[in-house]
Fold each of these.
Amino acid sequence: MNILVTGGAGYIGSHTVLALIQAGHNVVVLDNLFNSSSESLLRIRLITGHDVKFVIGDIRDRALLDTILLEYKINAVFHFAGLKAVGESVTEPLNYYDNNLVGIITLCQAMASADIYQLVFSSSAAVYGHSTIMPLHESMQTGEPLNPYGRTKLFSEKILSDLAFSNPRWSIALLRYFNPIGGHQSGMMGEDPNGIPNNLLPYITQVAIGKLRELTIFGNDYPTPDGTGIRDYIHVVDLAEGHLSALKVIESKSGVGIWNLGTGQGYSVLEVIHAFEKVSGRHVPYRVAPRRPGDIAKCFADVSKAERELSWRAERSLFEMIQDSWRWQTQNPNGYHSTDKGMYC
């Protein structure tokens, strides 16, 4: 198939592009490089031996979308493009609503005009809101997300559901991610956040390598075995493979399918720190700060629906996730902008 991947130079997008190419698909990437690097696509070429067709541009550029969909004879779209920093979404809500919601509307308008109706959408467990019922499963009512980022994911899901209801030609997968970590086992691809990381594991690896002084743990008084929050972590390669499984399903099924992509296993912050120290042999200094508003004690997925309907399950362990994250960090101390990146070019 000819597949357009929006946001395909980003963390999850690039690993999915790699999986698609390895599965024999033709891929075109559209990315504005706001929070990503074209270097990730060069690494894909080195791993696979295949060039990645790459267009620099914005998902809200309708004329550009029309050109891409026609010129490359696109059959399906994977949509990752969007702003994703929770804290920033609180201070810049209009940017998030404009980019994420106008983006999905413009994309779907262009797809319909080009008679393309297969879409895999990057959603989030944030749509469940502040639920304390665990594990989270797809038949639950969505909640009230605690920030504009989460609301853009929920509103996007509603837009896509309404769209599919209006026209049975649409076949859409809504994939609700939990906490992706890790990187390609070669160490050539991984998570490359701008500034101080928002997520736990890249924060840990940057402390361990000396880029940051210490890790901050937000709250150690939760009703969990060690007092720290518990989350469901999934290897980014497992996550990418889940997208391919979803594509196979929507190829032969119309309407909207919703699936959690996680492991179904939760680990606390301290468990992740101790596992990292065991894998890396490095001590991770940390300090405890008060809980952040909106954080809950536990969050993990019920993944039985994905196992049953997608014939997919996450295979990689927490230790493998950490090993691959640490390999990426040590080989690329400054991410894709490392001074030694020429060895890959």
Note: The chain has one domain: 2-344.
Amino acid sequence: MTSYTAAVVQMNSQPDADLNFESARKWIRAAAQRGAKFVGLPEYFSFLGDLRERQDKADDISKRSSQFLKDTAAEFSIYLLGGSIPVPADQKRTYNRSLLISPSGDIVASYDKIHLFDVDLSDNERYRESDDIKPGENQPVVANIESLGILGLSVCYDLRFPELYRTLMEAPADVLTVPSAFTATTGKDHWEPLLRARAIENTAYVFAPAQTGTHGASRTTHGHAMIIDPWGTILADAGTGEGIAIAEINPARIKEVRQQIPSLNHRVL
């Protein structure tokens, strides 16, 4: 594996799939033009807004999103992480599924979000993902790709559960992907520290595409899509506007940090 350029996209997705596809393709093209071989999209890149509308349209959104990812990855000859899309699970719920697509347009890895965001942030801000989302099986998902290394998949709220990332390190993963739609309330205090912690404790790169701004009537996300190196250094930060964060990924850096601090070899549990 040699060095390569990676990019993570920051979007302000809305309850309009056509506009979201147009925006995603624009940023993917911009990343590819700058030499990116891997591009990551955020959680719910193709639809973010009213939960009931998403549930009602899940089958259509899922099919269109999957085809968009396959076609776009092949068009730009890149590995494309389709952040996440809603995939029908039963009559009332969907899976929150992250897809990794090859430059030939094939699905090489699929992961359904395990941890669901059921929280009470205030009297006016509550989330119950378990009402609408079915959790995936407790199975870690990694993709061993010769040109990129070993990628470990996760989604958003998974970030708060370090034990998941420890299972991904059994491979061990070189890169941890965290496509997200982190709330503005939690993101301002928790997003960067948690991302850097996952990079530092696992001595791995972290690719974190993100949503930003207001989506639909009321949901607001934090932004700051990032790429972080195995030392915990932020290599690129998209800030709060739509755009991309892009950086060179150096496999030698992983080896170097793991030699300096061989914490993965010192685990006793």
Note: The chain has a mean pLDDT of 96.
Amino acid sequence: MRMKIALVHDYLKEYGGAERVLHTLHEIWPEAPIYTIFCIKDSPAGKSFEDAEIRESWFRKLPFCEKLISPFRFLLPAIWGSFNFSQYDLVISSASWAVTKGFSGPNTKEICYCHTPPRYLYGYETSRDWKKNFLVRLYGTLVNHFMRMYDYEQAQKVNFFIANSREVQQRIKKFYQRESVVINPPVEVKRLTANGLRQMAKSSQPYFLAGGRLELPKNFDLIIKACREVGVPLKIYGTGSRLKYLKLIAGPKVEFLGRISDKERQELMADCRAFIVAAEDEDFGITPVETMATGRPVIAFRGGGYLETVVEGKTGVFFDEPTVAGLVKVLREFDGIEGKIKPEDCRKQAEKFDKQQFVNQFREFVDKATNRKHATLEAQSRN
């Protein structure tokens, strides 16, 4: 008898790494409905799941729900509590911001794929500097206190945790006292490698590349200032709340490309001198792997998930401090390093994170988690 499976995700608006994971899970189990707080149909994420059965919460009926969800986060228990998952054998939750976990029941098991425990609850930098305003800080501190307790309680209801990196695995252990296994996010390595090989013959003016969600934790201002000081061309793709500020501090050699297609992004990666990432506590970081798949190196801050993907001196180089001076030093030394990094080494490293690896590992984990012969797996996850 076929298992009844449901997928659960924070919300569907932007299309980033978490949504790529969800999309792969949807490809594995296309008949599984996707439960979410809300889905903005004409957004990048909404368009990507047009073929899926989306089941939204009552919160979707509120006007401007996408803007209200952050200040109204105290409603999350009521939002998730309004869904009934008792008819499912298995719930697979894709969890990061919205405490999207804790859906198991007497006859329902839950596997939580944790992108990270909510960053705003545990002192990690977030997209907006909410502590800047005194009243907002007071409100946020009070609400987050109770949300941390709720998050912990929900985490104890999960049958099995999967972490997207060793970095996140440590966070799950620290904040939830739960064990987990690591299955890295899926990356379209084979397609990216093929695009990279084609792009080699079309090399243009050398440039460094950065991009993604232009938000505070990604430290794009640091990257811009360092490239400006060294005087090297920099291209940045993506949009976000920091765009206006970043344009103000950019010099003449910085080009903003806005929202671009996957094909354009891959071509930019394949043609750049190196992709630069500077977040201090990245959960995993898919863009470095995508860049290496095209045969190009990565310049990364020495921390977080970057340590699990970039091989120093072989597929890229690290800078030790998240400062302009730290990145400037590496940029000035890069001419002597660049020639030592071989495209084939970059591609070989990226292959470890290929999408098929994710699919195989996730299927195997589900098979074990839902088979009574493997009941010890759940017991181990709670120790």
Note: The chain has a mean pLDDT of 91.
Amino acid sequence: MGKLMHEPGSRRLVEMVDVSKSFLARRRLGGRRETVVAVAGVSISMKRGETVGLLGESGSGKTTIGRMLLKLTEPSSGRISFDGASLEDLGGAALKEFRRRAQLIFQNPFDAFNPRFTLRRSLSEPLLVAGIDRRDHAARVENALELAGFRNGRTLIERYPHELSGGQLQRCVIARAMMLDPDFIVADEPVSMLDVSIRAGILNLLRDLQQRRQLTALYISHDITLVRYLCERTLVMHRGRIVEQGPTEQIIKDPQHPYTRELIAAVPRRRVVAG
């Protein structure tokens, strides 16, 4: 079985080399099932503490990339490694350790929690999986909620998801992701389901957490303004391939690929050029 290396001196934490992923499409009436290529020969490398944006329209393969990096979907070919170990080889204790260190921030906070469970139970689930002593759960949950911007988390933990607003729920999603002090997060369209009026607060929280915890973070989005605000480097994805990459400001101000230029042209100019 593979083993996570924990190499503090190594600058690279996440690496994807020539990765492809294909799915069998649903069979049409009287027809054959067709193979759909979601990701084709993608290579990505992320340094420790780096924030990277994966930018593209719906159906470009972005979410599949994120799921493969978290070992939630297996690649059809290619190699993915985390902290020097191949994800394909991880098992047992090493896989459990990877699950602690790599976390997902969901797109839809309304689907992220079981509606029948209180927030206390839902937020405690990662601690149970990690084998954390139950006597420490309450303090850890409250600390995570405080980290996510709640001044008094105790007033929330006995509530059910439907009793919270979308913004509150997304903060709880972030709190759960931070519960085990991860090194790497994948945030898939983290504010797309929220009202415009509360997006800024969530984005500020994410940026603050990344800076305070020195997280390595991949932000998946179709929103150029989000990527510009959070990410130092951006990869542009189109039809399963990375068509352009570089420093985010350079990508926005001097796009080289026609698809990148289309994405930027589709955004009101004042939103793109605003500092």
Note: The chain has a mean pLDDT of 89.
